Give the backbone structure.
Amino acid sequence: MKRLCILFLFAVTTGSCFSQQEVVVSAINVDLYGTLLTPESTTNKAILIISGSGKTDRDGNTRPTYHNDGLKKLAEGLAEQGYAVLRCDKRGVGKSISDSLSAEGLRFEQYVSDAILWIKFLRNTFEDITVIGHSQGALVGMLAIQENKVNRFISLAGLSEDAHTTVKRQLANQPQMVKDASFPILDSLKKGVKVDSVPQYLYSLFNPRIQDYFISFMNYDPRKEIKKLNCPILIIQGSSDLQITVEGAQALSQESPLSNFALIPEMNHVLRKSSPNAIENFATYNKPDLPLHEDLIKVISSFIN
């Protein structure tokens, strides 16, 4: 049985209309850390933000590659609207580290179990809970709330297809050499068969140490999982997102009668206003001072209220 340990490590005043506390829950083999923002006014509404793929921390940063503070700004923007907001370091990232964790032992289901712990943590204090999953975190959220009731679910620039299909699509514009090397590996992992010989330039995707994780990730399809949810759903997608397509997000929203779809013009994957030009778009991934797209907080607040 998992042990739920709740510790408030410190509280500070931010100078805004909310305070923040670092909190921790104990999962198997690791303590998971997060930041809880609490508005000055009393509220029964809390939001859990689940970050995306890779070594992404509670602020939405995948360092040293990307530093944009997208999820930090999202949390603060929502806290200013009067919601309690929790964002967390994934296991193996930020402060959520442990000597007992290994890349070889990681499975996608562990992220789901961790999200369930955070939902239970919020349930101790708040009656009304919304889960927001960003990118891959949307699939984590879908799975976590199937047997842990929440009031609402938001897929924010979330995966709209299974990992096999998504990665193939994202690699489609790469040189033919990359596709010729990548696609057979993807097909093998889809069948549950690991690949020993991987070109060095593909190690970030297919390192043999993480292939068991990749196989576990491929077992889930958002288009199937969303049908299992029984709460109001909002799919938010930006038109300038170069990682998730508008068409895919629209198709995902049509898989459930409980789902609504919101298109935010010119919003990209890190929640900033941007053109679809790849150079300009990806430049925003490393500009933490850029504000969020001006429509995002309004769309989320309207759905929650």
The radius of gyration is 19 Å.
